[in-house]
């Protein structure tokens, strides 16, 4: 007969060090403890199957295999159609299910680790090994259950953020193959009546390729037209044309205060009216909007770790207004030309400063800042700064983009990141000069034509931009040419004298080095004319 041990187990079973460690030497018990911990780490349930409650082990192993199958399936779907996974994670109920599943898995894994500690039987370990095994157990639990639990927490935070920002309205299709979004930067600061969108940009994205065109509309644009199906067409049949008060950034407040009833289903009537007006200006249908509170923009940029831009010229950080005037005290600081890494404070001022420059320069800088944010907000940044981005976004962003389309739009954004964003300002320098008053008396047929050119010339949009550049450069060249002729006239008057005079003038009166100290001195003495000349075209910038 075979020898049996207690409980009817065979003698071989009693001496099995995995299930019956009491008869094993101390080194074997230590090795057994770490093997069981590793089994629970890599194959949850296997430690119970070989050394503990086999019924629990089989159930846990079944859960483990199911999780592996789901992860493999998710990996295959990610390769074929990863926006589908984003849609699940951002869906109101899909995200809730994921939060519950992750939390349940975290608790179950923690339970298996605790049960594994029971199986290890720390009292059988050498006294010096007991704290080591305990610390190892805690570390592995933090790595596994902690990661799952924190993932559930972040997903729940994101779920709440998306629910508060994005709408549950039906998804919309592209128009003429493009998605058109209105992006506004609103400022409801002290001394202002209501919120005024001083930054007005349209981002138009090709639904197939991700090719992106950005249109900047100056805040002082007048006579904005409304499409025939817009409620505002009844109020302003000839366009938003009540004079200097009816610049485009005043429309939002006008509708909120006087005509909100014309948009009874809208969460934000002012934004809906802005969509209609911009649709009329550009001749395209604006399908969704996003409104960013400029007061919180600084926090949003800081949440993503700042942005990097290549500034073309100096930009002042304006000081407070001198009481009783529309002038400012000398700037509090300056943003220098060249590649700059901007935190939220400096990015905000780079986008909104218009002192010693024009609104059109500011529009160009705003486009540059937005391009930098699109280019530099990559998946790694989202993952590592998710909580900060979610908190900032919930406070500063309002939009009517449907939450169920986030997956497809994220996919589209990834395509756009790999391509150059083309830009067009609906005003100087792309449409005449500041002296032409184009934004006061706009030519809408010309605007619509140029907009369509930007769409059709996807391979080379430089041709459409160059139409305005000769006017600008010829005006500057003409001014410098007149000065040169005057200088040569005071010389010999001959052709050779006309050629040599500029060189002699340069040697006699070298241009002063433009430094922050020099610019600040000019501001302190009130030499705005020189500052305006030196800071001309400080809207020229690019994303490095």
TrEMBL record:
<keyword id="KW-0472">Membrane</keyword>
<feature type="transmembrane region" description="Helical">
    <location>
        <begin position="60"/>
        <end position="84"/>
    </location>
</feature>
<feature type="compositionally biased region" description="Low complexity">
    <location>
        <begin position="498"/>
        <end position="512"/>
    </location>
</feature>
<comment type="similarity">
    <text>Belongs to the LytR/CpsA/Psr (LCP) family.</text>
</comment>
<dbReference type="Pfam" id="PF03816">
    <property type="entry name" value="LytR_cpsA_psr"/>
</dbReference>
<dbReference type="InterPro" id="IPR004474">
    <property type="entry name" value="LytR_CpsA_psr"/>
</dbReference>
<feature type="transmembrane region" description="Helical">
    <location>
        <begin position="96"/>
        <end position="120"/>
    </location>
</feature>
<feature type="compositionally biased region" description="Gly residues">
    <location>
        <begin position="488"/>
        <end position="497"/>
    </location>
</feature>
<keyword id="KW-0812">Transmembrane</keyword>
<protein>
    <submittedName>
        <fullName>Transcriptional attenuator domain protein</fullName>
    </submittedName>
</protein>
<feature type="domain" description="Cell envelope-related transcriptional attenuator">
    <location>
        <begin position="196"/>
        <end position="377"/>
    </location>
</feature>
<dbReference type="InterPro" id="IPR050922">
    <property type="entry name" value="LytR/CpsA/Psr_CW_biosynth"/>
</dbReference>
<feature type="compositionally biased region" description="Basic and acidic residues">
    <location>
        <begin position="462"/>
        <end position="474"/>
    </location>
</feature>
<keyword id="KW-1133">Transmembrane helix</keyword>
<feature type="transmembrane region" description="Helical">
    <location>
        <begin position="33"/>
        <end position="51"/>
    </location>
</feature>
<feature type="transmembrane region" description="Helical">
    <location>
        <begin position="132"/>
        <end position="155"/>
    </location>
</feature>
<feature type="region of interest" description="Disordered">
    <location>
        <begin position="456"/>
        <end position="515"/>
    </location>
</feature>
């Amino acid at each position: 007969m075979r020898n049996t041990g207690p409980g009817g187990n065979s003698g071989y079973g009693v001496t099995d060090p995995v299930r019956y460690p009491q008869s094993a030497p101390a080194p074997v018990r230590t090795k057994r403890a770490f093997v069981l911990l590793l089994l629970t780490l890599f194959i949850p349930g296997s430690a119970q199957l070989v050394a503990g409650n086999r019924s629990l082990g089989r159930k846990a192993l079944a859960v483990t295999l199911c999780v592996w199958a789901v992860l493999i399936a998710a990996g295959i779907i990610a390769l074929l159609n990863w926006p589908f996974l984003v849609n699940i994670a951002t869906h109101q109920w899909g995200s809730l299910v994921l939060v519950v599943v992750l939390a349940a898995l975290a608790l179950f894994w923690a339970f298996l680790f605790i049960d594994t500690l029971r199986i290890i039987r720390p009292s059988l370990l050498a006294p010096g090994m007991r704290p080591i095994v305990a610390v190892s157990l805690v570390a592995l639990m933090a790595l596994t259950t902690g990661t799952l639990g924190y993932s559930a927490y972040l997903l729940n935070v994101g779920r709440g953020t998306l629910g508060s920002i994005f709408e549950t309205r039906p998804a919309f299709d592209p128009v003429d193959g493009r998605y058109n979004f209105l992006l506004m930067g609103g400022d409801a600061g002290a001394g202002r009546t209501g919120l005024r969108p001083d930054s007005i940009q349209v981002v138009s994205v090709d639904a197939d390729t991700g090719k992106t065109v950005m249109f900047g509309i100056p805040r002082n644009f007048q006579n904005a037209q409304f499409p025939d199906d817009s409620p505002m067409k009844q109020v302003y049949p000839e366009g938003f044309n009540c004079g200097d008060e009816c610049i485009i950034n005043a429309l939002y407040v006008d509708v909120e205060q006087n005509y909100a009833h014309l948009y009874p289903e809208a969460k934000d009537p002012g934004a809906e009216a802005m969509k209609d007006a911009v649709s009329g200006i550009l001749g395209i249908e604006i399908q969704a909007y996003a409104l960013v509170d400029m007061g919180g923009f600084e926090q949003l940029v800081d949440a993503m770790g700042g942005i990097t831009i290549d500034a073309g010229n100096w930009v002042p950080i304006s000081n407070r207004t001198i009481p009783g005037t529309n002038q400012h005290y000398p700037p509090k600081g300056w943003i220098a030309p060249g590649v700059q890494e901007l935190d939220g404070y400096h990015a905000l001022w780079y986008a909104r400063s218009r002192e010693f420059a024009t609104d059109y320069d500011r529009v160009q800088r705003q486009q540059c800042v937005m391009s930098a944010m699109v280019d530099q907000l990559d998946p790694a940044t989202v993952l590592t700064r998710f909580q900060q981005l979610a908190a900032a976004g919930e406070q500063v962003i309002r939009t009517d983009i449907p939450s169920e389309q986030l997956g497809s739009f994220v996919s589209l954004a990834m395509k756009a990141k790999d391509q150059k964003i083309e830009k067009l300002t609906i005003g100087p320098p792309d449409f005449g000069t500041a002296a032409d008053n184009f934004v006061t008396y706009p030519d809408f047929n010309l605007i619509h034509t140029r907009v369509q050119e930007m769409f059709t010339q996807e391979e080379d949009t430089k041709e459409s931009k160059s139409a305005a550049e000769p006017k600008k450069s010829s005006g500057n060249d003409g001014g410098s040419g007149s000065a040169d002729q005057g200088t040569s006239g005071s010389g010999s008057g001959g052709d050779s004298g006309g050629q040599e005079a500029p060189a002699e003038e340069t040697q006699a009166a070298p241009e002063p080095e433009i430094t922050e100290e020099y610019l600040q001195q000019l501001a302190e003495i009130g030499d705005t004319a020189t500052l305006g000349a030196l800071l001309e075209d400080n809207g020229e910038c690019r994303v490095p």
